[in-house]
Amino acid sequence: MLLAFRLVQDTTAALRQRVRDVLRQYPGSQRAFAEQIGLDPTKLSKSLTGTRRFTPVELTRIAELTGVTVNWLINGGDDVETVAAAPQRTARPARDPGDLREASRYQQILDAAWHLIAERGYHSVRVSDVAKECGTSAATIHYYFPGRNDLLTETLRYSVRLAFDRQVAELHAVEDAHERLLRLVELQLPTPGLLRQEWSIWLQVWNESALNPDLQVLHSDSYTRWHDTIARTIRQGQEQGVFADTDAEELTVTLTALIDGLGIQVLAGRPGRSVERMRKALREYVEREIVRH
């Protein structure tokens, strides 16, 4: 127990140092950095000195703003083995934005495009809309996204990165596989806000990838990441003795299919389908088919 406590202390100390490292490269002030991640400057100072811990949401936002991953912030490397499967190479950002100032501009444009596509639909968003949202010119948008297909491709990559970062931030300290699987289910519910927008992006990607072979590859690699995250959690639960010794791949196929189908029904507004009913159905499946009795 003492060793585990010391390991947590070491991890949080290293995390704080890595946040300080990216903060030093930030082109603005510490106060501006705090505002960008939606954090009171006093709370940021307390988190940097160790009297307060960063929340998962804050870690995810810091990663977005600075162009790093939550896995790097917590574990010191993008590819360190963690609770969630890392995105495959095609699902990672296609462009290295360079210095932090350019990375900040790139992130602003990508964030605006992502939200507009999620809210209005891919075919209803023009480059000029993104430019207006960012307070910049269409030429600047085209510098990062030469065409509309590039916008959709990068919004998918962004969604993959968001999901990975959120899962690492939320689950890195959850050792019990049963609890982690339930949290993974919770993180896939299309609740109002970020998760519902993420679902909107995925629905559009599913539609476009049926017609675009290039997008099919990216979609396949992105979905593989999610599948592998569920599968590794189920296998760990089997090793811990909390899950039944049923084929983990088959359980994963069924569970992800249930999540997809129920999520689409909720977003489509089918009568009688709600986030609460989706949560109940998924938890019942986990307890009935995956948990050891």
Describe this structure in words.
With 293 residues, the protein is mainly α. Among the domains are: 1-72, lambda repressor-like DNA-binding domains (434 Repressor (Amino-terminal Domain), Orthogonal Bundle), CATH 1.10.260.40; 174-292, Tetracycline Repressor, domain 2, CATH 1.10.357. It has 14 helices and no strands. The chain has helices at residues 2-25, 30-36, 41-49, 56-66, 70-75, 100-120, 127-134, 138-144, 148-171, 177-186, 194-209, 213-240, 248-267, 275-290. The protein is globular, with a radius of gyration of 20 Å. 32% of the residues are buried. The model is unreliable at 1-10 (pLDDT under 50).
Instruction: Specify the structural class.
Output: mainly alpha
SS strand fraction: under 5%
Q: What's the number of extended β-strand segments?
A: 0
CATH topology of one domain: Tetracycline Repressor, domain 2
Helix/strand order, N-terminal first = HHHHHHHHHHHHHH
Taken from the alpha-carbon principal axes, the silhouette is globular
User: Span between N and C termini?
Assistant: 29 Å
Rg, Cα atoms, Å: 20 Å
> Which architecture of one domain per CATH?
Orthogonal Bundle
The largest sheet is: none
For the record, the CATH class of one domain is: Mainly Alpha
Helix content: over 70%
Number of alpha- plus pi-helical segments: 14
